[in-house]
């Protein structure tokens, strides 16, 4: 993402706050079609049947990856508080990134309504 921002930063006119949706709908659009999901699990991950347990395990692996990413990059990872605007909550970390003129993920916010984390990035 940082390289992308360096190359195309002047052309970007938006910021995004939910990396997983951007990846699935933008970078990996083929995962929105059922037959491609089957290929992803069977062909790429070597899974026979796509069961609840297989999906649960993939979610666990994804969450572990996100937690490791947070540890390796010294990023805060916290649960979102109910009734608090997420943008307001992470704004101090965004301001810090802006002061340092840095780009990339600066905070990982977990939503209670869904098990997936929201990766917030500075663009």
Summarize the structure.
This protein is an alpha+beta fold.
Note the gap between the termini.
9 Å
Mean pLDDT over the residues:
77
Q: Please write the string of helix (H) and strand (E) elements.
A: HHHHEHEE
Count of helical stretches: 5
- Structural classification: alpha+beta
Gyration radius from CA atoms, angstroms: 16 Å
Q: What spatial order of strands do you see in the largest sheet?
A: 1-2-3
- How many domains? The number is 1
Q: Which oligomeric state applies?
A: single chain
Main sheet specs = 3 strands, mixed
Helix content class: 40-55%
Q: Based on Cα principal axes, name the global outline.
A: extended
Q: Uncertain runs with pLDDT below 50, 5 residues or more? A: none
Word description of this protein:
It is a single chain. By secondary structure, this protein is an alpha+beta fold. It has one domain. The protein contains 5 helices and 3 strands, in the order ααααβαββ. Strands 1-2-3 form a 3-stranded mixed β-sheet, with helices on both faces. The chain is extended.
SSE map:
Blueprint lengths: L1 H7 L10 H9 L6 H11 L7 H21 L4 E3 L6 H14 L4 E7 L6 E6 L1
Parallel strand pairs: 1-2
Antiparallel strand pairs: 2-3
Question: Main attributes?
Answer:
alpha+beta; 13% strand; extended; 123 residues
């Amino acid at each position: 993402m940082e390289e992308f921002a360096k190359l195309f930063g002047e052309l970007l006119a938006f910021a995004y706050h939910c990396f997983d949706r951007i990846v699935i709908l933008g970078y990996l659009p083929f995962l929105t079609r059922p037959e491609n999901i089957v290929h992803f699990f069977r062909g790429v991950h070597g899974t026979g049947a796509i069961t609840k347990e297989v999906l649960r395990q993939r979610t666990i692996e994804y969450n572990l990856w996100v937690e490791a990413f947070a540890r390796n990059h010294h990023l805060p990872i916290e649960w979102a508080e109910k009734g608090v605007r997420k943008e307001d909550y992470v704004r101090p970390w965004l301001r810090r990134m802006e002061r340092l003129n840095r780009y990339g993920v600066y905070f990982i916010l977990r939503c209670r309504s869904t098990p997936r984390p929201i990766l917030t990035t500075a663009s």
